[in-house]
Amino acid sequence: MNQPIVLTGIKSTGTPHLGNYIGAIKPALKMAADTANQGIYFIADYHALNSVQDPALFRQYKYEIAATWLALGLDPGTVIFYRQSDIPELLELHYILSCVTPKGLMNRAHAYKAAVDANNQKGLDRDHGVNMGLYTYPILMSADILSFRSDKVPVGRDQIQHVEYARDIAEYFNSTFGPAFTLPEYVVQEESELLPGLDGRKMSKSYGNTISLFEEPAKLQKLINKIKTDSSSPDEPKEPKNSTLFHLYKEFASAEEIEALKNRYSSGIGWGEVKKEVFRVIDRELSEPRRKYGELIDSPALIDSILAEGAVKARELAAEQLKLVKEFIGM
Fold first, then answer.
1. Taking a C-beta distance cutoff of 8 angstroms, is the pair 83, 311 a contact?
2. 8 Å CB contact between 194 and 23
3. Could you read off the pLDDT of 229-262 as tens digits, one per residue?
4. Which residues 6+ apart lie within 8 Å of 113 measured at CB?
């Protein structure tokens, strides 16, 4: 490929909510539309296996994630879109890379250290509940990145270590066997303001304050109506920056609409009216994707077909890279 390769992994660990959409999905879709790059997008179901170990949910989440991205505009005709578990070359490369990766590097991985710290605080054995999938997570992620000679990997600031580890592991291999790998670069996605949930805190499943991305209109309006507000009367001026409703609104409204609502906050507006406006702009943006999502989720065979076509393209790249790696090793 002549175009720079940009790789994005999407972990299938639950039904997406509005916070996922604004914070991760929307920026990634914008990058996918950039024809200067070759986008590679994959459903990271092997990574999800660390935490999702219910077969029905594991299967359900994979279809939900695939349907979500396709409904929101990911075009499998211009990007390579596949399921991680359909690429066996990844697991072969994972083992090869594990043979040159120092254990100490894994000990310093953020996810593992967080699990150990949590166990220490609870007075448990440091490795309580830690499986080897979690422990070697960075090696599999390195295989994901290096299998496709990825040039750029978009990440949040808290995920930079994953790309740094891929570079480190590639250098361990190259210094041992020869230059099989190019070194990927991380691209820090612009920091977007965290979307607040129903209770004003960061929208998160762990807080139970989320709004599902494709909630039906009636349920969507009910959830918005539950958002906490203060006791100010409709004619009292209100401060937009302290309003959960305003923060939600501005992520889905036009610049003109945002300015108009800001003026109405200053002059006085009832919370009930604001909630109707929040519903209007969210439903406007997501009504058509909601319809497409419904069609896709009812057509698992179609999703399988799209992912299978992507896997063929992905395997060609991964097999070529694995062949080169084996030649350097002497296999």
1. yes
2. yes
3. 999 999 999 999 889 999 999 999 999 999 999 9
4. 107
